Amino acid sequence: MSERLLKIVPAVSVPMSADPQALAACAAACEDRGADGFMLRFETDVRENPEEFFKTVRECARAVDIPVYAHARYFKLEDVKKLLYAGASYCVFFGADEEDMHMYPEALLRFGADRCACLLCPSDELRTEDNDVIPVTQIFVNASVNCDIPMLLNENRDAELLVLDIDPEDTDNDYYAVKAALAENGIEVDLFVSAVDPAEFHWDEKGLIPVIVQDDKTDEVLMMAYMNEESYRLTCDTGRMTYYSRSRQSLWVKGETSGHFQYVRSMSLDCDADTILARVRQIGAACHTGNRSCFFTPLVKRTGMHPNPEKVLEDVYAVIRDRKEHPKEGSYTNYLFDKGVDKICKKIGEEATEIVIAAKNPDPEEIIYESADFLYHLMVLMADKGVTWDDILDELSKRESAK
Predict the structure, then answer these.
(1) Nearest-CA neighbor of 258 among 231, 233, 223, 214?
(2) Of 244, 296, 300, 369, which is least packed with CB atoms within 10 Å of its CB?
(3) Tens digit of pLDDT for each residue in 268-289?
(4) Rounded alpha-carbon distances, angstroms, from residue 103 to 74, 200, 361
(5) Domain spans of the chain?
């Protein structure tokens, strides 16, 4: 094996009639169960229905934090660019198919090895017409979930990507279990391994430790519960938050009866080693009352506090979206929607120019005012095109991680 971790990437075949939202749900289920990526294998020509290709990739990329691989027959670099814009982490070329590979060297040169992947079996080698070796960014072994994966990988020790063909309607595959089996066979995989021995935690007299649970996307504090050593180890093994109930004196998996599971994104220990902070992807409500968070009863609050800037953007965007869905007479926002994208873009251009002019003046207040105008009109365009702040922040996050 190479020094890099072996990535487990479930792959679904995408027919023309595929439901993008159903595939996005499948991608999210795979991520929650431990997948390191998600591959869309488009069965049809990109040129036959390009918008459906882009929509499917977009929906899946929005649903998960793991890389989305788009494997398709590419005929021009514009296809690659649009799929990357739609949210694909990698545009995938299949090295065993000469027709599929005719654009790979050019795509690699233009978009880089961190965005274009060539999938080859370990025994394959890719060369140009001049017999120069073309660098391969991913070496893969294709398999099914039920095959003898350790034996397969033992025969292909250079594999960096294990692509598992799955049924998009089958969301029960446990990739944590697959990776645990691989780890037992000496294959390096990405598992939740505690950086601190639980024996070093400061458990209370009943062998418990409090766990504060926070939404990984919004930072909202959702609940507080307790773990014992067994529930902590099960949480690491399964990727699902598992607690110890003091009243029932038994383990319980959050969401086992309600379906409101909590999938681990990270866990941290505080400075006294007596409290855990867990960041999770929360399905549904965290509270048994049906509220998103258990902390929904106001007690005291200081007035005049500055609001969270990120929440301000989300709140203004929500109002703009509401105007689009429920038009209000006399609304300037609805006036822009009625005039269409050309008018909206014209206003964005005007506001951008106003920022440039304001930058030439000594008073920074003008920049603040004009920037606010620009952001408002930008959000109108975003709402018109169905783009959210999460989409933009996710893209910025990808760029930051690539630096």
Answers:
(1) 223
(2) 300
(3) 999 999 999 999 999 999 999 9
(4) 8, 54, 49
(5) 7-184, 198-282, 309-397
